[in-house]
Design a protein that fits this description.
Length: 152
C-alpha cells in the first residue's frame, strides 16, 4: 500500500466500520495514512435494513434499537482500537446502503473542507460471493468521486 497523499491541505479519511476483520484493517490503515499529516478520521457504522417491506412496524423498531446497541458497541471497539494511537477521529452512524452512506459522508467532508483531500478507506472482503456479485469496495470504486483506498 502506498501512503503517498498530496502535501497540501488536511486529509480527511472516511472509514467504513462494522467491527469485522476487514474493517479493523481499514481503520489501522487510516491511522497509518494520517500519521505525520494534519486532518482526521471519520469512522462510520452503517445500519442497513435490506428488506423493510417484510418486517412489521414493531419488528422494525426492535431492529433499529439493536442497531443503536451495535453502534454503541462499535464506537467503544473503535475507541479501544485507536487508544494511544490516534486522537483525531469521530464516530458516526449512518442508515442506508453502505456505499451510498460512505459516498455521502465523503461528499459532505469535501463540501465542508474545500481544497483538502478526502478519501474513503475500506477493507476488502475475502468472501467468494463478493467476487461474483460485488462488494462495497467494488461499488465504491465504480461510483465514488473521491479516492478509494481498499485495504487487503
Amino acid at each position: 500500500m502506498s501512503t503517498d497523499m498530496p502535501a497540501t491541505g488536511d486529509v480527511h479519511l472516511v472509514v467504513g466500520y462494522d467491527g469485522s476483520p476487514p474493517a479493523v484493517r481499514a481503520l489501522d490503515a487510516a491511522v497509518r495514512l494520517l500519521h505525520g499529516r494534519t486532518g482526521d478520521i471519520e469512522v462510520v457504522y452503517i445500519a442497513h435494513l435490506p428488506s423493510v417491506d417484510m418486517l412489521s412496524a414493531d419488528a422494525i423498531v426492535g431492529v433499529e434499537d439493536s442497531f443503536d446497541e451495535v453502534s454503541r458497541d462499535l464506537h467503544a471497539q473503535a475507541r479501544e482500537q485507536l487508544r494511544g494511537r490516534e486522537d483525531r477521529w469521530t464516530f458516526a452512524r449512518g442508515d442506508g446502503a453502505v456505499p451510498d452512506v460512505l459516498i455521502a459522508t465523503a461528499a459532505r467532508l469535501s463540501d465542508t473542507h474545500p481544497g483538502d483531500t478526502v478519501a474513503i478507506v475500506v477493507g476488502s472482503s475475502s468472501q467468494a460471493m463478493h467476487r461474483v456479485v460485488g462488494s462495497v469496495a467494488v461499488s465504491l470504486a465504480r461510483r465514488a468521486d473521491v479516492p478509494i483506498i481498499i485495504v487487503p
